[in-house]
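User: Show me a protein chain along with its predicted structure.
Assistant: Here is one chain, sequence first, then structure tokens.
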Amino acid sequence: MRNDYLNDPNAPMANSLKVAVSALVRDADGRILMIHRTDNDKYSIPGGGMEVGETVADAVAREVAEETGIQVRPIGIVGIFSDPRHVIAYDDGEVRQEFSICFGAEPIGGTLSTSSESKAVRWVPPEEISELDIHPSIRERIHRGLYPADKPYFT
């Protein structure tokens, strides 16, 4: 299990920092690839931690494939999200400060499938995103990806 805290004065103090990646993947119809997470029961864009020996581009492609069954090619950076007021507490006692590089990506193959981290995977039209239970930090990434500025976003 995990609990996300954002701007919560009662949140536990962070005790770790790990490079993470996420991807706003859009298909030819503009729909967004979303997962229903098993660890916090919220919808999210796919993503996870970078592993030793891989690039951030490799990490995002691996994470998306593992969680959704879809192979992707990163095509740009949506932003770098490192707000110290967003911490993620895990059952094992780790409390991680957010540090995630969010990529825009395009699907290049694969078939939708779930994993131990995703109990549902689907393509969602942007106008239906507001109907899903999504953590505010992920909503911010989606918004930044749908309405990009001239330069990548960072905190």
